[in-house]
# Entry
Amino acid sequence: MTTQGQVRLENVAKYHGQVAALKNVELDIRPGEFFALLGPSGSGKSTTLRLLAGLDKPTRGRILFDGADVTAKGAQDRDVAMVFQSYALYPHMTVAQNISFPLEMEKTPKAEIAGRVQEAARKVRIEHLLDRRPGQLSGGQQQRCALARAIVRRSGLFLLDEPLSNLDAKLRLETRTELKRLQRSLGVTTVYVTHDQEEALTLADRMAVFMDGEIRQIGSPAEVFARPNSIEVAAFIGSPPMNLMKATLTDGVPSIDGRPLDVKPVSGSREVIVGVRPSAVRIGGDGIRATVDLVENLGDNAILDLSYEGGTARARVDDAADYAEGQTVAMSFDAKNIHLFDAASGRRLEVQ
Ligand code: ADP
# Structure
């Protein structure tokens, strides 16, 4: 049976003794979607993937593929293909044998296997390496071999656990682009675990941000980036991270170091956190007085480390040469680029 590729987790929890690896996760993944599970180490991403694969059973809740309850089914009875960080290739087998292995297990007719292995190898561009053993391949080629082994089954769901993390930086970027192209052309629902926010932002159609065994936010990368719903999510998405500055809300208007900010008022008076991405900090003119502690030249642009009376912040500027360490500058923010969070709860406050 081939699936359409719709995946649903209903109120899923996973405990290891007293340890909650996952608490009450609700998730709907649409057919054909590239869906990232993003979060720091230990937040429950791999646990979720293992539950989807059928390698583990949830302590509570249900898992549905295309509306059918698969919670009790083992890995071999689910229409899924998994690629691990380690690739898990068989070292004594050739690339062709590694790729054909799942088909042999499924007792696919011999006559069909060779053609399907060729086709899978071609899709990931390793058809010239079929006679080699994994030890004779580069890291990137091993990764493609693992992908081909997943593709060859024509599964309805791909599960990828940090598949790029063993590659060096340059190869990781190239492979990322290729993975996106491959997933688009195959159209297979793909669940992708990563702790790397940039990877999730560039690859995913939608993503779920995991923290402490919970999903904190679900949305497209653009949505989560533009409207993080909590301080924790805001701090996790974006590089360099969003500036989070203590501010006081008085009759709906926040101020930093006694300077009111130019935002449409929210309600009330309390402690708030003002979030501004480094790229949205304006330097010059009228604003909060700050000292340049460090100028980090990135070539195309530069990052300024700033300190002001109430704390520190970072700003992305066009040209490192325009700034000197020790210089006093003024920083300000456009109303449309300001995120407001309640300091006590960490929740986003809506700025209209
Ligand atoms: P991630 O993939 O986001 O790094 P995991 O899903 O692997 O996180 O783990 C989530 C939490 O569950 C972690 O705190 C981890 O230590 C715990 N955990 C995972 N597997 C086990 C296990 N077999 N026994 C005990 N605790 C576990």
